[in-house]
Every structure is written in C-alpha cells, then in structure tokens.
Amino acid sequence: PFTVNCIIHAPLFADKLENRLFIQPAIFHKNRDPVFVAKERINIIDFKYPSFEKDEIVIQLPEGFTIEEGSVPTPLDLKELGTYDVRIFLNKGGSTLNYHRKLEIKTYLFPQKIYSSVKSIFDKIHDEDRHVLTLKKN
User: Fold this and answer.
1) Alpha helices in the chain (DSSP H)
2) Are the C-beta atoms of 96 and 59 separated by less than 8 Å?
3) Positive/negative CA dihedral, 13, 91, 98, 71
4) 64 near 138, Cβ under 8 Å?
C-alpha cells in the first residue's frame, strides 16, 4: 500500500458564479481524461494487477459559504470487476466537508470483445468523479 497525507492550499480550486462556488470534491480526479477514449479496441485490456484506491479528503469550506446542494455520486456495483463508492459528510458545524472515495478493480484482464462494456463502466466512474457540489454565500 502507498499512502500520502498532505495539506493542499488551492485558493482558485472552485469555479465562481455570482454568490456561488462550484467544487469538485474528487480533487485527485479533476480535469482527468477518461481511461478509455477510443470507440473500439483491437487488443485485450490488461491492467497487469488488481488495484484499490481510497481517497479521504477534508475540504475546509470558505468562510461565509454553506452547502446549497448536498447530492452524492451514485455507488456502482461493478459485479466481478470491483466496487466504486463515494460518501460525503458535512461536519456538525458546517465548516468542513469530508469526501471518501473507494475504487476497487478486482478483475484486470478483459478480452477485446467486451471492450464497450468495460469502457462504459469506466466512463460512468469518470462521470461520477466529476460530481460537483454547490456552495452558496450566506
């Protein structure tokens, strides 16, 4: 396992529109391209090994802002492929947001003939990782 603990200051991380901020709490996946971009594939898909990602992110909300929309990405049951789950918690005082993301890929070798299904799953994960929360100025 590889673990990194750090504090990141990103004052221009949110997109601003009038009295609202739009944040993407999956900070490690912001602006990433999809895993698979080709419409078709001629070779097998080989990730070489199973993988497990666990992100635990605490976001300090800017002073004077609260969550306007508190939706959560949809958990995905990836069957034998693995799991994808996101949990978002707002602390009691409302000043910090906890974002927990887990992605486990158990199966790592796929025949070319099921590429469209595998691509579809990874496209859905990519879409869910782009989930946006809206903060509103009080």
Assistant:
1) 115-129
2) yes
3) negative
4) yes
Asked whether 52 and 104 are in contact (CB, 8 A), the reply is yes
The DSSP code for 75 is: P
Q: What is the pLDDT of residues 58-84, one digit of tens each?
A: 999 999 999 987 788 888 888 888 999
Question: What are the Cα distances from residue 122, in Å, to 21, 64, 82, 83, 119?
Answer: 28, 36, 11, 11, 5
Answer yes or no: pTM beyond 0.70. Answer: yes
Range list of β-strands (E), the chain: 15-17, 20-23, 45-46, 51-60, 65-69, 76-77, 82-90, 96-105, 109-110, 133-137
